[in-house]
Specification:
Layout lengths: L24 E4 L5 E7 L5 E7 L2 E8 L2 E3 L9 E16 L7 E15 L6 E9 L2 E8 L7 E7 L2 E4 L4 E4 L12 E4 L23 E2 L3 E4 L5 E7 L7 E6 L4 E6 L9 E4 L2 E2 L2 E7 L2 H6 L2 H4 L15 E6 L1 H5 L9 E2 L3 E2 L13 H13 L4 E4 L30 H11 L2 E7 L4 H18 L3 E5 L14 H16 L3 E4 L15 E4 L6 H5 L9 H5 L33 H10 L4 E3 L4 H4 L5 H6 L4 E10 L3 E8 L5 E7 L4 E6 L9 E8 L12 E8 L4 E6 L4 E8 L2
Helix pairs in contact: 4-5, 6-7
This protein binds 1-deoxynojirimycin and calcium ion.
Calcium ion binds next to loops.
């Protein structure tokens, strides 16, 4: 096991005397650029404001809760006690964008008590970093508050202007929306409701989801999110156009009628604001993981970051199916061995993927549609009891494919589509993960398509937050890592449970295969890099080479060039990175060399340039080698870029392979035109690159021997 390097922990605790109790409490970041000011106002309402380099970033905003069967916890408070401390450590990621993470902040903890009647207590803790802040509520043990039912959390974020905002609606049931770029006062989430391509959606208010990223008129970048979402409801942010303010709007439940139920003592998740002068600094920030507790699992070397292929895209294209047999009489599938012959997850097909992966330095194969239940998928109200997570279809010999994979050094990735029938899945988890353990399978992709069962629950409410978290904790007991689709948002829990490897939680590549609205436009990923990706790893499933796939779907296509598909292996971070296309589309294509070579686990990450929604270039150094990889992507606009390689090691000549858009490449008119060239590069080199509309480039750099 690796040694966790802990630098000296400096803790300075200052207790304040009574006379200072009601004054403004200030705490600054270690470099003093960011400052939080906390104050109890005249009505006893807790308030805070945030200042960056002497300018307000968040104007005075109030904090509090509405409770069921109890008066609101929102006013009549006084400060009982204030403590401050400085914290500084360096910890190691078992896998990630970088090996070492500095966690350095100043903390302010304010202990509050109501002056009248119930004298209930509430603590608020601020952690102020050089790259932003996190704050949370702590409900300490006390007499007059034991069980808490939260009907609303009223955390305000009062903005200083009508910022430019990159947002998706505050959907309680799905994050798979296209991002909108508007002024704050033009946010209209309700107009996005009832989107025809979503398996489930519920947008009750004009609210946005997090991470939501903004640019101020002064050119400062802000991103709002949450960290350590545990036993609580996901937070959306309700928009108040008149006040230029946002307020927390927790995801609710029609089953229970409340937002959150907890027993005291407990802490809420951290509410976070990342602050940056350059948009790329948002990507490099480690604020979200830093606000989570350290690794509780210890050694997880049984999980290895890997590239993977899969029996997957072929179903999305309609080349094959997840199900094996016919549906009969609305939902009763008779397993009489009568296959329709189009089933994708066969032993034979899996072996072909294993052979291809073994040949191309790809460590795993995902197999979807291997188990019984797919006949009933989607559209059936009564989905409980349908999927079976241990019983393969007759044409899939799971022991044999696992054995064959092992022989070739390729792991099989398990797939559990729950169809959002949570009780069935919870009941079967021990058996399902037990089977994986027996077979030596260490990764599962889970899925939650459809409306949540039990009825009245939503994907992002407290019930599901607990379901997703409990699944990860249970999986860890069986040495299983989880890549969830239709997940709860990432909030940095991968630090605490590093078997939380990746997730969807965005409009993924699959939309390009079948959506009726034209798929993901070229600006999608240049926005995602500065919004969704700030939350954590993304299973986007890049690497489609047959961009137009007319053989299968005339009306759909990927809206990027092939060079951009390569760039995504570097730009979009995930410790599991799919080569998503059909294997026949890779065979013989020289661009495959980049997928063969590219790393999946990183020592270091540097954002070289970027503007939200326009372009971004990221360089990553592979862990345990001296190899670097660079990826750059642009939106629908062609661009020229000059890249300086000053981040490379000095006195080293690198053999670089450059995969760039050919002269006349274009995401729609000529997406597969790629130019591949070999050159030598040192840390003195500068390179001019041309990116086509919807294009990009990928570079591999290996020290010359
Ligand atoms: C939706 C997931 O995002 C996709 O990757 C998967 O193939 C289907 N559900 C089926 O589980
Ligand atoms: Ca999905």
């Amino acid at each position: 096991m690796k040694l966790i390097k802990m630098s000296v922990l400096l803790v300075t605790v200052l207790l304040f005397s009574c006379s200072e109790k009601f004054g403004v409490q200030k705490v600054s970041s270690p470099n003093e650029a960011v400052q939080v000011e906390f104050e109890i106002n005249i009505e006893g309402v807790p308030t805070y404001k945030v200042v960056y380099k002497d300018n307000d970033v968040i104007k005075t905003s109030s904090l509090g809760f509405d409770l069921k069967d109890a008066p609101p916890l929102s006013e009549g408070f006084e400060i009982l006690n204030v403590t401050k401390q400085n914290f500084n450590e360096t910890w190691e990621m078992p896998w990630g964008e970088q090996l070492e993470v500095e966690n350095n902040y100043n903390e302010l903890k304010v202990e509050l008590q109501e002056t009248k009647e119930l004298q209930r207590k509430l603590n608020i803790v601020f952690k102020v970093y050089n790259d932003g802040i996190g704050f949370r509520y702590e409900f300490p043990e006390q007499q007059n508050l034991t069980d808490v039912i939260i009907t609303d959390e009223n955390t305000q974020f009062n903005l200083t202007g009508n910022h430019k905002v990159w947002w998706i609606p505050g959907d309680w049931d799905i994050y798979e929306h296209l991002y909108n770029t508007t002024k704050f006062t033009e946010i209209d989430a309700l107009s996005k409701a009832n989107h025809s391509n979503l398996a489930q959606t519920y947008i009750p208010e004009n609210a946005v989801n997090t991470p939501v990223t903004m640019k101020t008129d002064e050119g400062l970048y802000l991103s709002f999110h949450e960290a350590a979402l545990v036993d609580y409801s996901g937070m959306t942010l309700k928009i108040d156009k008149e006040k230029l303010a946002m307020q927390s709007e927790l995801v609710g439940s029609e089953r229970t009628g409340y937002k959150v139920k907890r027993t005291v003592p407990f802490n809420t998740p951290w509410r976070t604001i990342q602050i940056a002068e350059k948009p790329g600094d948002l990507i490099e920030s480690k604020l979200i993981v830093n606000l989570n507790e350290p690794n509780k699992l210890g050694d997880i070397s049984w999980f290895k970051p890997t590239k993977y292929t899969g029996i997957w895209w072929e179903m999305h294209l309609g080349k094959s199916t997840w199900d094996y047999g016919m549906t009969q009489d609305m939902g009763t599938w008779i397993n009489d061995g009568k296959a329709h012959g189009r089933h994708g997850a066969t032993t034979e097909n899996t072996k072909a993927f294993i052979d291809f992966s073994a040949k191309n330095n790809i460590g795993a194969v995902l197999v979807e549609g291997w188990n019984t239940g797919w006949e009933h998928w989607i559209g059936f109200e009564d989905r409980e009891g349908v999927f079976d997570f241990v019983t393969p279809y007759p044409d899939y010999d799971i022991e044999e494919v696992v054995r064959y994979g092992k022989e070739k050094g390729v792991e099989i990735i398990m797939h559990h589509e729950t169809s959002a029938a949570t009780e069935t899945y919870t009941k079967q988890q021990d058996a399902a993960f037990g089977l994986m353990k027996d077979l030596g399978m260490h990764t599962v992709k889970t899925g939650y398509v459809g409306k949540i069962l039990p009825k009245g629950e939503y994907h992002h409410g407290q019930y599901m937050v607990n379901h997703y978290n409990n699944t990860v904790i249970k999986a860890a007991k069986y040495q299983v890592a989880v890549n969830a689709h239709e997940p709860i948002k990432a909030t940095g829990l991968r630090r605490t449970y590093p078997n939380t490897i990746s997730r969807e939680g965005l409009r993924g590549q699959e939309f390009n295969a079948w959506s009726s609205d034209g798929g993901n436009p070229p600006e999608h990923l240049p926005i995602i890099a500065f919004t969704r990706m700030l939350a954590g790893p993304i299973d986007y499933t890049p690497g489609i080479f047959d961009i137009k796939f007319d053989q299968y779907k005339k009306d759909n296509q990927v809206n990027t060039t092939i060079a951009q598909q390569l760039a995504l292996y570097v730009v979009i971070y995930s410790p599991v990175q799919m080569a998503a296309d059909l294997i026949e589309n890779y065979e013989g294509n020289p661009a495959l060399q980049f997928i063969r070579d590219v790393g999946v686990d990183w020592q270091q990450t540097k954002v070289l340039n970027g503007e939200i929604g326009d372009f971004v270039t990221i360089a990553r150094k592979e862990k345990n080698t001296e190899n670097w990889f660079v990826g750059g992507i642009t939106d629908e606009n062609a661009r020229e870029m000059e890249i300086s390689f000053d981040f490379l090691s000095p006195n080293t000549t690198y053999e670089a392979i450059i995969y760039e858009d050919a002269e006349n490449a274009h995401w729609n008119d000529n997406p597969t035109a790629i130019n591949i060239r070999n050159i030598e590069i040192t840390n003195q080199s500068n390179l001019k690159l041309k990116l086509a509309p919807g294009g990009g480039f990928a570079i591999s750099l290996k020290p010359k021997k």
